TrEMBL record:
The gene is tcyN. This is L-cystine import ATP-binding protein TcyN. Belongs to the ABC transporter superfamily. The lineage of its organism: Bacteria, Pseudomonadati, Pseudomonadota, Alphaproteobacteria, Hyphomicrobiales. The keyword Membrane applies. Pfam families: ABC_tran. It comes from Roseibium album.
Length: 253
């Protein structure tokens, strides 16, 4: 049995007096695809952001490949060294709802940026790698274009290429299709599906329940400050056991 890529135990986050989640235990094995569902405000984004420490988690343990990252602190949130953060963000890639591309850089420049600044890859090599990643998402012909000239679906595919360029062990997607016109959702889900077929380890926050059912090896439903219900797609989406999950699914049919 291989070690989990990611293990959370007793993981929690509070903002001042607001406890967003606590006691989250989660093992993510290589190739797992975990869809995270939950009502607005249930803490889905905060959970993902705490996993790559865009938000500082408050308590618990965060392990990557069996290696503990961060230290508990009595004073408040956990503590992470710069070195830990830099390593963590290379190993855990993130794709955001709003793409977060740099408008003043070309598409290839966006994809190459992390390689140059974080990995110290030389400019020419970084651009070659960027074009190869753009090819994977079907956008090699847009390498020299600026993001403002792209559709939302194309922007999100660039953001995915940018995350892939860092060779992450695990990819986090926070509602990657929520900002898109309905007509553009399919092309982004298509790329995510392709990554699934390659056996990538992914956590995906989504309201696309039909997609989650086919995509995920496991579903987490967040409510009441934690993982309220979890299981296979069939268990959670077809036969939810707990009332808030049932209610949510009834509202999202
Ligand atoms: P979701 O993604 O499920 O809609 P979020 O993780 O964005 O939920 O938010 C969970 C809760 O945490 C909400 O009550 C939200 O207002 C609060 N929250 C999120 N980010 C912050 C922050 N930076 N400071 C204070 N409260 C926050
Ligand atoms: Mg959110």
């Amino acid at each position: 049995m291989s070690a989990p890529v990611l293990r959370l135990s007793g993981f929690g986050k509070q903002f001042g007096s607001l406890r967003v989640f606590s006691d989250v235990d989660l093992d993510v094995m290589p190739g797992d695809r975990i869809a995270i569902l939950g009502a607005s405000g249930s803490g889905k984004s905060t959970l993902l952001r705490c996993i790559n420490v865009l938000e500082t988690p408050s308590e618990g343990r965060l392990e990557l490949d069996g290696e503990l990252v961060g230290q508990p602190s009595r004073a408040g949130d956990m503590r992470f060294s710069e070195r830990e953060l830099c390593a963590l963000r290379q190993r855990v890639g993130m794709v955001f709802q709003q793409f977060n591309l740099f408008p003043h850089m070309t598409v290839a420049g966006n994809v190459a940026e992390g390689l140059k600044t974080v990995r110290s890859v030389k400019s020419q090599k970084a651009l070659e790698r960027a074009v190869a990643e753009l090819q994977r998402v079907g956008l090699a012909d847009k390498a020299d274009t600026y993001p403002s000239r792209l559709s939302g679906g194309q922007k999100q595919r660039v953001a995915i290429a940018r995350a892939l360029a860092m060779d992450p062990e695990i990819l986090l997607f926070d509602e990657p299709t929520s900002a898109l016109d309905p007509a553009l959702v399919g092309e982004v889900l298509g790329v995510i599906e392709q990554l699934a077929n390659e056996g990538r380890t992914m956590l995906l926050v989504t309201h696309e329940i039909g997609f989650a059912y086919h995509f995920a090896t496991r579903i987490l439903y967040l409510a009441e400050g934690g993982i309220y219900e979890s299981g296979t797609p069939d268990e959670v989406l077809k036969n939810p056991k707990r009332p808030l999950t049932q209610q949510f699914l009834a509202e999202h049919r």
